[in-house]
Amino acid sequence: MHTIEQLNDGRAVYLNGHRVNVADVPIFRKTLALNNQYYDLQHNHPEVHTYQENGHRYDIAFKVPRTVADLQQKHRAYQEIAQSNSGMLGRTPDFLNTGMAVLAERAAFLGQNQYTDFAANARNYAKEVKANDTSLAMRFKTHNSTVKKPSMPFRLDTRVFIPLNVIKMESSFLVPKWSIRWPQLLMTS
User: Beta 165-170 vs 18-20: how paired, if at all?
Assistant: First the structure.
């Protein structure tokens, strides 16, 4: 679970073109509360939302289904999640964790080379995420914009809005040298 204060970690957050303090915006508080309902279900109904493995309890997202009963348990868990928030939590905070669990299960195809064992890296990372009940959706919060980055020299097409921050421009060059910060988009969860 996260607190609203944990989200105020110094990153610049903009809403409707204005920089905001995440803790002061009601919609962020409500969204976080909705996400945290998911984790509350693990504590309130562990028989549905968690499973036992080697003496430890884990989030059901990490369970790789091997039987019909396993699939039924996962179905019950996600059905209860949807009912708890009237279907408003489109992606649960663990939506990437299920994929990570299956990737670890089938990691052999990643192979290895003279520098590293990619399969072992995937399995080890999955173990860490599972042991700490980490939300990968929260860990990887941003990604680069899908705006195509222009080749230099930069020519602004006024028909396309590209949200850029020009950090510095040096005019001592024959072709101006631009230092540009590209936008990052917040993932939904």
Answer: unpaired
- Segment 93-108 shows an average pLDDT of 87
Count other Cβ atoms within 10 Å, centred on residue 189.
20
Of the listed ranges 3-17, 72-86, 94-108, 150-164, the least confidently predicted one is: 150-164
Classify 105 as helix, strand or coil: helix
CB 92 within 8 A of CB 81: yes
Amino acid in position 171: S
C-alpha 136/C-alpha 119 separation (Å) is 19
- Vertex 127: Cα angle to 45 and 11 (nearest 5): 85
Beta-bridge partners for 165: 181
pLDDT for res 137: 60
For residue 83, the model assigns a pLDDT of 87
What's the confidence (pLDDT) of residue 2? 67
- Residue type (1 letter), 83: Q
* Crossing angle of helices 95-105 and 118-131, rounded to 10°: 140
Residue 153 phi/psi, 5-degree rounding, is -75, 150
Residue 166 β-bridge partners: 180
Confidence class for position 179, pLDDT limits 50, 70, 90:
very low
Separation of alpha carbons 123 and 92, rounded Å: 22
